[in-house]
């Protein structure tokens, strides 16, 4: 690591450590419309990790991706739980507009989050950090939680995998930012106690 890069990282962590949890880590004006939330509380992956480290058990960090994503792409080690905001129905049709299988909102998302947080002694005024693949689903999940009365819901704007490169040799690949690209702790080995395992 170069001395300049080391100093930049040190400066970032000093700035982050001085943040109050009520202060926006990212300026809402710089967040793309698809990733904006009603609460306007945003962090990038590095800031999410720092916020969770700072608050510990006083913050609840949720991976809101589908079960398939978590199973095949891995999960952040710092996450407290995996609760999908959307999920593929059992016999998913093809979504022509978005070029993927249909995703339905998980009607158990709010209740499951409330159960998990209550078990940790947390409530709707405590800090919640949401992360999806790249920041749009976590924004929609944050909006739902606001409607349910949560007041401190942060969306990780670059998500677990990051944004797509627009040009260059890696165009179309998620190599720009995000949890994995920031080399933050994650694993393919999943902790069953954190996973969403609905009883049918």
TrEMBL record:
Matching entries from Gene3D superfamilies are given as: Rhodanese-like domain
Q: Name one Pfam family in it.
A: Rhodanese
Can you give the residue ranges of the Rhodanese domain? 55-172
Please give the InterPro entries that the UniProt record associates with this protein: Rhodanese-like_dom, Rhodanese-like_dom_sf, Thiosulfate_ST/Rhodanese-like
Residues spanning the signal sequence: 1-25
- Using the record for this protein, list the coiled-coil segments as residue ranges, or answer none: none
| Keyword list, A-Z | Signal
Query: According to the lineage, what is the superkingdom?
Result: Bacteria
Any keyword Signal?
Answer: yes
Q: What is this protein called?
A: Rhodanese-like domain-containing protein
* Species assigned in the record: Keguizhuia sedimenti
């Amino acid at each position: 690591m170069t001395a300049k890069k080391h100093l930049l990282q040190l400066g970032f962590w000093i700035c982050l450590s001085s943040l109050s949890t009520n202060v926006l880590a990212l300026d809402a004006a710089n967040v793309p419309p698809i990733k904006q939330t009603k609460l306007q509380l945003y962090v990038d992956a590095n800031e999410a990790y720092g916020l969770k480290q700072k608050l510990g058990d006083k913050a609840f960090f949720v991976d809101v991706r589908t079960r398939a994503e978590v199973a095949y792409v891995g999960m952040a080690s710092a996450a407290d739980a995996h609760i999908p905001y959307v999920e593929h129905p059992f016999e998913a049709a093809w979504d022509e507009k978005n070029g993927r299988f249909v995703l339905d909102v998980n009607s158990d998302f709010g209740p499951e989050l409330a159960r998990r947080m209550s078990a940790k002694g947390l409530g709707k005024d405590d800090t919640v950090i949401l992360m999806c693949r790249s920041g749009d689903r976590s924004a929609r999940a944050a909006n739902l939680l606001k409607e349910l009365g949560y007041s401190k819901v942060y969306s990780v704007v670059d998500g677990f995998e990051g944004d797509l490169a627009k040009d260059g040799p890696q165009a179309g690949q998620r190599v720009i930012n995000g949890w994995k690209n920031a080399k933050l702790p994650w694993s393919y080995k999943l902790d069953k106690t954190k996973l969403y395992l609905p009883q049918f």
